[in-house]
Structure to design on (443 residues):
């Protein structure tokens, strides 16, 4: 049975299982970008993005991967790791080992794309200082703040700026979770010395989400020594956490006090002005013209998480595209209402309810809406019912098609667009649809 599937198909199943067995950070870093290339005899070729990943997988995850693969193919199978079509030669050190880390940076997370406001001014200035003058400004630099406020963005920006300035600088970015995983694995495989060597030979170490260390004594112990070694050699260390060092639960006192040696800068939620600035910048990056009145709606609704702020903008843009409608404050409110209001309302609104309501409003029968009838009144009622279903429930296009008399998703799509367009030109239709939506929400 296995032979009938392509290598890529098999590999995707393997990845699906591995995803359940390793941590998210681990999966993202080492497995996500791999592909199944060839399955021949008892050899399974896997393509990986660079030598560093190949070496890591070879050392740390080969047995897990092979075990999983054998579970799926039911044959004894050996994994061959390939970089650009070349098989990994065990034991050969790659000179580009450090370079291999660079693709780990998100090219969008730079100082250029970081909008400065009152809440993050100090953190931003300190981050710039660390990037421009590594090891000689604040060491360590500790950045802390709530979720989605730009900590990871700043760490990536520091790493990329420092790297751009001095190409041979060995910059290492790692999440605390990944650091922990690698340590645990290196212990299991008796390669702790390699692990230490790797971290202690960095010129700049960026550690994200340090709160993960809390209560993990062995990791803290190890990090403590890495920290000291780097710090003694004036290597820049930048750490992020979700709160100030002294507030992190279960962190050893000696680590805590070291984190306070340099500068601890907090990031506060953005004020209204900064939220507007961020939205403007993000809309600009996407090349989508969005009016200030629309951005204001978003900036007012989403206040304390920049990731959500960004998400809400993307949602509004996608929503407008789907409906082929102009991006107006009203449309933005609708798009966001779905996010905020859905969880509580969703249970109450069923296709049957919508059908009843629309049929009543257009004075046709629910059965007629589901039937093939094509007189104008019935067609409009049907289209409005589909539109409301899309907006007010979680139904997919094909589910809506089924509910409305077995119509195709393409027909549903067409109807949604038609209603949205007509609402733009026909105020009385718009008014009617909005009233219907309102009465649905109020149950
Ligand atoms: P954290 O690590 O603090 O949870 P992130 O760095 O992942 O937050 O930021 C979440 C999202 O918000 C990212 O897409 C990031 O680019 C964006 N972001 C955060 N702060 C800013 C800012 N000041 N300017 C522009 N984008 C920002
Ligand atoms: Mg983060």
């Amino acid at each position: 049975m296995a032979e009938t599937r392509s290598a890529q198909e098999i590999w995707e199943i393997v990845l699906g299982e591995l995803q359940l067995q390793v941590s998210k950070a681990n999966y993202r870093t080492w497995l996500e970008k791999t592909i199944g290339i060839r399955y021949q005899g008892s050899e399974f070729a896997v393509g990986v993005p660079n030598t560093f990943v190949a070496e890591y997988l070879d050392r740390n995850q080969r047995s897990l991967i092979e075990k999983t693969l054998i579970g799926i193919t039911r044959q004894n199978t050996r994994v061959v790791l390939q970089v650009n079509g070349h098989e990994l030669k065990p034991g050969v050190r790659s000179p580009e080992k450090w370079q291999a880390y660079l693709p780990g940076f998100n090219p969008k997370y730079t100082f250029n794309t970081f909008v400065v406001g009152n809440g993050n001014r100090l953190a931003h200035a300190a981050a710039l200082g660390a990037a421009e003058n590594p090891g000689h400004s604040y060491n360590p630099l500790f950045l802390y703040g709530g979720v989605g406020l730009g900590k990871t963005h700043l760490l990536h920006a520091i790493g990329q700026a420092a790297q751009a300035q001095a190409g041979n600088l060995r910059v290492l970015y790692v999440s605390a979770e990944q650091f922990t995983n690698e340590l645990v694995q290196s212990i299991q495989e008796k390669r702790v010395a390699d692990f230490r060597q790797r971290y202690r030979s960095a010129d700049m170490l960026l550690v994200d989400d340090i709160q993960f260390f809390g209560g993990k004594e062995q990791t803290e112990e190890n990090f403590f020594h890495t920290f000291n070694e780097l710090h003694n050699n004036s290597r820049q260390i930048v750490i992020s956490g979700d709160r100030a060092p002294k507030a992190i639960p279960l962190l050893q006192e000696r680590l805590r006090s070291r984190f306070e040696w340099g500068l601890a800068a907090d990031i506060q939620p953005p004020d209204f002005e900064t939220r507007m600035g961020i939205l403007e910048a993000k809309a600009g990056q996407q090349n989508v013209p969005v009016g200030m009145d629309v951005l204001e709606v978003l900036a007012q609704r989403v206040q304390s998480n920049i990731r959500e702020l960004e998400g809400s903008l993307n949602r509004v843009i996608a929503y407008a595209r789907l409906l082929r409608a102009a991006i107006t404050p009203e449309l933005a409110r609708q798009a966001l209402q779905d996010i905020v209001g859905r969880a509580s309302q969703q249970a109450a609104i069923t296709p049957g309810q919508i059908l009843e309501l629309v049929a009543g409003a257009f004075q046709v029968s629910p059965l007629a809406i589901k039937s093939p009838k094509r007189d104008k009144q019935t067609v409009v009622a049907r289209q409005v019912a589909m539109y409301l279903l899309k907006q007010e429930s979680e139904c997919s296009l094909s589910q809506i098609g089924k509910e409305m008399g077995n119509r195709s998703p393409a027909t549903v799509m067409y109807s949604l667009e038609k209603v949205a367009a007509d609402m733009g030109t026909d105020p009385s239709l718009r008014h009617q649809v909005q009233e219907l939506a309102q009465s649905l929400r109020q149950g």
